[in-house]
């Protein structure tokens, strides 16, 4: 029960900052950084797909 609550707190960007829990802060920073990397990789994937489609159209012309 406590582990589940700690996980939810660590993934929440507001509650740990308000409570001042110094143990959760590094974990929260890591999770935030991982989310940022994931979003960037997803955008890069979309860009590659769009570029591949544009090259396919350009090559067919």
Structure write-up:
InterPro entries: AH/BAR_dom_sf. The protein is built from 3 helices and no strands. It has helices at residues 2-11, 15-19, 24-60. The relative contact order is 0.08. The mean pLDDT is 84.
Q: How many β-strand stretches?
A: 0
- Helix percentage: over 70%
* Distance N to C terminus: 61 Å
Mean pLDDT across the residues is 84
Summarize the biggest pleated sheet. none
Q: Report the total helices.
A: 3
The tally of structural domains comes to: 1
Shape: rod-shaped
Keywords:
61 residues, mainly alpha
Question: How are the secondary structure elements laid out?
Answer:
Layout: H1 2-11, H2 15-19, H3 24-60
Helix pairs in contact: 1-3
InterPro entries: AH/BAR_dom_sf
Provide a brief overview of the structure:
This protein is mainly alpha-helical and 61 residues long.
């Amino acid at each position: 029960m406590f582990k589940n609550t700690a996980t939810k707190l660590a993934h929440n960007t507001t509650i740990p900052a308000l409570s001042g829990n110094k143990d959760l802060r590094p974990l929260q920073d890591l999770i935030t950084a991982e989310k940022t990397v994931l979003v960037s990789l997803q955008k890069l994937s979309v860009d590659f797909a769009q570029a591949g489609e544009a090259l396919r159209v350009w090559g067919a012309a």
